[in-house]
């Protein structure tokens, strides 16, 4: 007949095993996406690019994000994407920091200020492979501010 000590030891062992298997799952594999973004044939001075899964019906796909600086971007390993179809949203600015709003005690400057927008947010769709990839994206010149 098991003693209280044996039962407690078994419970601790089972709990540890459960926690270790739960912690080993690092989530879906992410891949780096890098490339260039141009508008009117010129590199976007400063901006942001977002990768959102176009459909999550088949699998859980991670979203991605990168800053655009002088027309170039690279997602960090922790902000990369998975394979599949992605909705890409691009914001671009002139890169000149905007002054803080004097009526707002916290100021209106964001941690990554893109400056004055040079086009309205542009959205397109891309298909990404199950590996690191490079994209060359052109924001059409007819996209209004």
Describe what this molecule looks like in 3D.
Keywords: Signal. It comes from Kolteria novifilia. This is Carboxypeptidase regulatory-like domain-containing protein. It is a single chain. The longest helix is centred in the N-terminal third of the chain and has 20 residues, at about 5-25. The model is unreliable at about 15-25 (pLDDT under 50). This protein has one domain (about 30-140): Immunoglobulin-like. The protein is mainly β. It contains 1 helix and 8 strands, in the order H-E-E-E-E-E-E-E-E. The protein is globular, with a radius of gyration of 23 Å. The protein has one helix spanning about 5-25; strands at about 35-40, 40-45, 45-55, 65-70, 70-75, 85-95, 115-130, 135-140. The strands form 2 sheets. Strands 1, 2, 5 and 8 form a 4-stranded mixed β-sheet that branches. A 4-stranded antiparallel β-sheet has the order 4-3-6-7, with no helix packed on it.
Secondary-structure map with pairings?
Elements: H1 4-23, E1 33-39, E2 42-43, E3 46-53, E4 64-69, E5 72-74, E6 84-93, E7 117-128, E8 133-139
The main pleated sheet reads as:
4 strands, mixed
In CATH, what is the class? Mainly Beta
CATH architecture grouping: Sandwich
Between the first and last Cα atoms, what is the distance in angstroms?
78 Å
Regarding quaternary structure, how should these chains be classified?
single chain
Low-confidence stretches: 17-24
Order of helices and strands: HEEEEEEEE
Count the helices. How many? 1
What shape does the CA trace take? Answer: globular
Mean pLDDT: 79
């Amino acid at each position: 007949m098991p003693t209280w000590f044996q039962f407690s030891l078994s419970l601790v062992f089972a709990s540890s095993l459960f926690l270790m298997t739960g912690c080993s799952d690092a989530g879906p594999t992410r891949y780096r996406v890098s490339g260039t973004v141009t508008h009117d044939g010129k590199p976007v001075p400063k901006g942001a690019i977002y990768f959102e899964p176009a459909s999550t019906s088949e699998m859980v796909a991670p979203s991605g994000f990168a800053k655009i600086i002088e027309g170039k971007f690279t997602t960090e390993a922790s902000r990369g994407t998975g394979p599949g179809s992605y909705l890409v949203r691009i914001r671009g600015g002139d890169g000149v920091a905007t002054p803080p709003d004097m009526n707002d005690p916290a100021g209106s400057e964001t941690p990554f200020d893109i400056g004055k927008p040079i086009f309205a947010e542009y959205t397109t769709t891309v298909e990404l492979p199950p590996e690191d990839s490079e994209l060359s994206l052109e924001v059409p010149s007819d996209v209004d501010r």
